[in-house]
């Protein structure tokens, strides 16, 4: 961390600052320039509050040189993390997996039918929403506990491990047999929830928030890893921009960039990112080409009758077509 | 709600759509144009999923005419809501209140000292963070339960009602004696939390999310009101944009615009919005002029030693100066 | 276009509106609902000002059903446009081309060397900036007229057609022998310039503005086509968002979405979009997979000495590596 | 400027970098830390390309300490600039002015009528669009040269100096008698136009671009001042964000923040920023309270018949009401 002081800083304030920094175990290197004095802080600066230093009268500006994240940082963990899920399924480090299924679990028939169809087409994990975050209190909120039960039945019948979203800490006991717990975009900075899933020994799929930077995504993953859970899968699902032609703007450059920042696997959700079923295939292909470790795709037996997000769901036939295209691109994908 | 059909829609699909809409209790009015058939849906369309209809093959586009919110809608509740807080303090409907205090509760001395000083300067509610949402797991997370206790002591000593943030449902029992519960920007779409505080009989200060539209803010308020709690105070605190000179971009047009959409009171937080102490005064003045029902301002006894967000905190002296400027503008403020 | 009227509209104002709409050659279909009267406007609504109608006291809301663009609209021109450039080179309709070269023309040696190298690697058009838009007046502004001359020499020596940017109408006479004129992102809504290049018989590469929607991009292309020039190539080059890890956010969903909206070819510029050389390869691969008609890539003989945008330039060797990867993906690319 | 080098930088590359920096007249101060070497560059770094240095293999990161702008920088010009317009009218340094008039000049009667009415209400400058930037080529493009003539007639009849927008260098001869030349938001980075108006001896009203930062706005003002024209007036008119309830998001924190960065006067345009007539008054009041040096407001004799931007225009009566409210707030406005 570099602190640039203003001209002629008040000596007493400067002494206070230096003492405080030393009390945090940092070494300080002074460099006297013509118009500014620069302090280089050496040591573990992850816990140092830049805003606080910046607020001091004697400080011109503060710049961070090192990343504020550690456990997720590729610098300290150069090899790709491979997250092991149930049934010997792995993701990351060259293991590419497709997660597919309906937006919401609606009935036993529906979820089992979709599960069989996405398995046939090549998906290795089943997704389905039991607890649904909906903008409107009047919209369908998911089948909740019953939805989890139906997912378990689908798992038993097809062998596909389950990925489903938790919305609150109080729901976690219901997730005991869930294979991968999803933390949704709106909860990416629900820090209490992050801490709690950080104490589990279970893969966590962490979705990027609509207004969150890649560094913030990594800081949220750091929350989980700081608790001891190293099984974190990141998910790019689009950010909110001024463009309204798609629901969100899918940031595919995030894939190769995150790969340089972190060792964690990265999957892409083209369904939620675009909100338009016809864009799922090209974006799935593009994400694969760019080096994603997996995809998360909404598939519904009958898109028109889906209780939510129908506009972004594929039929099983369309999903099989996406899988075929993705499988062709896979061997040619960017590898860093 | 208006549904524009494509040319020559498949009759069977159209019949299905019409049946489904009627099953939701809606009346349908057809209007045959030259190149498009338009269906006008009359009735309670708040629960109708636009995305779903939009996904149908036979549909060109769907447009909502009515707002998807009811309880918060000024159309159905033309008079301003006045939220009554403890001690006879009211906000809304011409009652303007300033909430002030430190970012974080740090010690009994600190919170009591600041409480006395902001009270002297004219604040009528005390804010202070006990549970702190921090981007980094290594940053100070607040004094938590102990922080709530200290706020209660400050309340006892000064008589100021307390405003403090809840981060998770499991913390709510600790908030029994808190006067106003704050739902923070990162939790604006934590729908489980919204439902829970919707069952309380206590004012809720709901902050706008960094990437949320005004309509989404109102939908989150609708979650609270749908649970029976009518004591909702909205808070504009800046949105995330490409501009990095300020922490967020304070959207002051939200004040008069929200006033036309809803009857709920609206306060503005210039401290978090800008992240720069010297901008708090002009933005507090501007928010007051634009018709805000109140302000929420960070004040610290010693800004440089604050454990978080120091850069946006004022000294008590600077806060008194802001209050003086705001009080002069108050009688001239926009009234709609 | 659909106009939803307020309850009990003033009859005189309504008559005025109806007369005005009829004077624009539109037919009006009324549909009386329970709580609203809907007017459907049939005819050429491209010139109708939605904002103006929206401002009327009697109007609740206005919604456009038809696109405001005509010449660029795929509905009226279902086949892909193939733009023919000099030397029999075509782009669009299955013809994929890579445009490569340095950010700025710096010397005869430099531009000729790079031209030979990119040609060897497979580029079919040479780019190079003669007039450079720079944020700072103190930064290098390009070699200007002399730069155009050097591009002509490179063209003569290598046979590669030239793509270079015009910044002002007054520069156009210098572009007589330029093969493709680029209108840069900052000039996407320089409407006077668009009109002027609309009168040329020469391909125009139109870059998307940093804050412009896809519809606005198409409206700017419509300006060019309305003048008679049908040789328009669109270019996605990233939009400005809150994310600062990349210079801009590359919006690859724009490729398949634009393909449904328009018949014009679409190229992608991963160099400017990301501003990071190491991201050019994966984003070039992703753009190709998503169905782009071409790429525009910065290549420099010596990235470290480039006078501008060095951070986003590849060496010729790195460019050859990108070409190889892109060529492998090409046959598998999304075709709509 | 601070350059942080990577560990064990290649000595030859480092020597090259040092030579190049010295050739630009900079002094270099080395500071050796534990894990990084820091170079402090002292001298005129405005022309140094950060991106270029950042692209070097041996460089970890580059941070600018000094602002890249000089002439507009308040550090080098502590007093407020007062721009003198025709007729003894001044703006800046405590001189507050309101610019008002229709979006487009439509006829002699219209512009003269509006001019008289806004003068009566207290406006001291007349605005009116002769050249109109319109998204659609089929929308009204303004009366152009004839519109300028009509503005001159209105000036003659009322004595109000004229503010009107130039869209291209070739139009400048027509602006000889225009008092203040407006460079619109879409042209904020039309650098050739900026250079040209930088050679005039006439006030320039420079509007912030929809996707431009405050620093970029100042860099564009620097273009004008670098040409010798010191009469620059900045205009905040909203930026493009994800929020669609207003046309743009008015960034009022820009006013006090720009005042710390520059000595130039700042006016605010609430009409274009919000696009909603009813929001003009509260935003005009808020901008005034925040310390703006002036306002730019659209006024039309008959808003419903305006040929463009009608939704954001006030009637003369409504404008008089805004003026009254603004004049009351003026003496209480923030002064820094």
UniProtKB/TrEMBL annotation, chains A, B, C, D:
Keywords in UniProt for this one? Transferase
EC number per UniProt:
2.5.1.54
* Record-annotated DAHP synthase ferredoxin-like domain positions: 1-67
Task: Extract one GO molecular function annotation from the record.
Answer: 3-deoxy-7-phosphoheptulonate synthase activity
Transferase recorded as keyword: yes
Which BP terms from GO are recorded?
aromatic amino acid family biosynthetic process
Name the domain of life this protein comes from.
Bacteria
- Cite the Pfam families for this sequence: DAHP_snth_FXD, DAHP_synth_1
Can you say what this protein is called? 3-deoxy-7-phosphoheptulonate synthase
Respond yes or no to whether keyword Lipid biosynthesis is given for this record: no
Top-tier EC class: transferase
NCBIfam families per UniProt: DAHP_synth_Bsub, PRK08673.1, PRK12595.1
Q: The DAHP synthetase I/KDSA domain covers which part of the protein?
A: 82-323
């Amino acid at each position: 961390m570099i602190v640039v002081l203003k001209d002629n800083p008040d000596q007493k304030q400067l002494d206070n600052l230096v003492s405080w920094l030393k009390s945090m175990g940092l070494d300080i290197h002074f460099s006297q320039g013509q118009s500014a004095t620069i302090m280089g802080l050496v040591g573990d600066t992850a816990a140092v509050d830049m805003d606080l230093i910046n607020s001091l009268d004697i400080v011109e500006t503060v710049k961070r040189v090192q990343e504020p994240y550690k456990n997720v940082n590729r610098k300290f963990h150069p090899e790709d993390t491979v997250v092991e899920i149930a049934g010997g399924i792995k993701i990351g480090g060259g293991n590419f997996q497709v997660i597919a299924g309906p937006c919401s679990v609606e009935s036993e028939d529906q979820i089992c039918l979709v599960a069989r169809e996405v398995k046939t087409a090549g998906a290795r994990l089943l997704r389905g929403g039991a607890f649904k975050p909906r903008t409107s209190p009047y919209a369908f909120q998911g089948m909740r506990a019953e939805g989890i039960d139906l997912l378990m039945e689908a798992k038993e019948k097809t062998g596909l491990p389950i990925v489903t979203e938790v919305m609150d800490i109080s729901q976690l006991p219901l997730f005991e047999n869930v294979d991968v717990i999803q933390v949704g975009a709106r909860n990416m900075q629900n820090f209490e929830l992050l801490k709690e899933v950080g104490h589990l020994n279970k893969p966590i799929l962490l979705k990027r928030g609509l207004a969150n930077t890649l560094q913030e995504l990594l800081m949220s993953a750091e929350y989980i890893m700081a608790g001891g859970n190293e099984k974190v899968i990141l998910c790019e699902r689009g950010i909110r921009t001024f463009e309204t032609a798609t629901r969100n703007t899918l940031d595919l450059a995030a894939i190769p960039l995150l790969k340089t920042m972190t060792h964690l696997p990265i999957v892409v959700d083209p369904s939620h990112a675009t909100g338009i079923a016809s864009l799922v295939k090209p974006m799935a292909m593009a994400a694969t080409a760019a080096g994603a470790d997996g995809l998360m795709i909404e598939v519904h037996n009958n898109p028109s009758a889906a209780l939510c997000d129908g506009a972004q769901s594929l039929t099983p036939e369309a999903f099989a077509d996406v899988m075929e295209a993705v499988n062709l691109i896979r061997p040619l994908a960017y590898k860093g």
